[in-house]
Specification:
single chain; alpha+beta; two-stranded antiparallel ribbon; 20% helix; 3Fe4S_ferredoxin; transport
């Protein structure tokens, strides 16, 4: 099973937290982070990456339901 990961380039401040937590799933480019693939595994570290983003720029979705970041 997989989720979809999105990074809002307008909010991302390239802190690198997501790439530090899950370097195989998120990459840090010069100005923004990005998911390495649109689909990501349903794993706790994916949610941890979304939760740790200081700009709350990462959204994780299961279909139409937002599962990350967690409240």
């Amino acid at each position: 099973m997989t989720w979809k990961a999105e990074v809002d380039g307008g909010r991302c401040m390239a802190s690198g937290m997501c790439a530090g937590i899950a370097p195989d799933l998120f990459a840090l480019d010069e100005e923004h982070a990005r998911p390495r693939h649109e689909e990501v595994p349903e794993e706790e570290r994916v949610l941890d990456a979304a939760d740790s983003c200081p700009a709350l720029a990462i959204t994780i979705r299961d279909g139409t339901t937002t599962v990350g970041p967690r409240p």
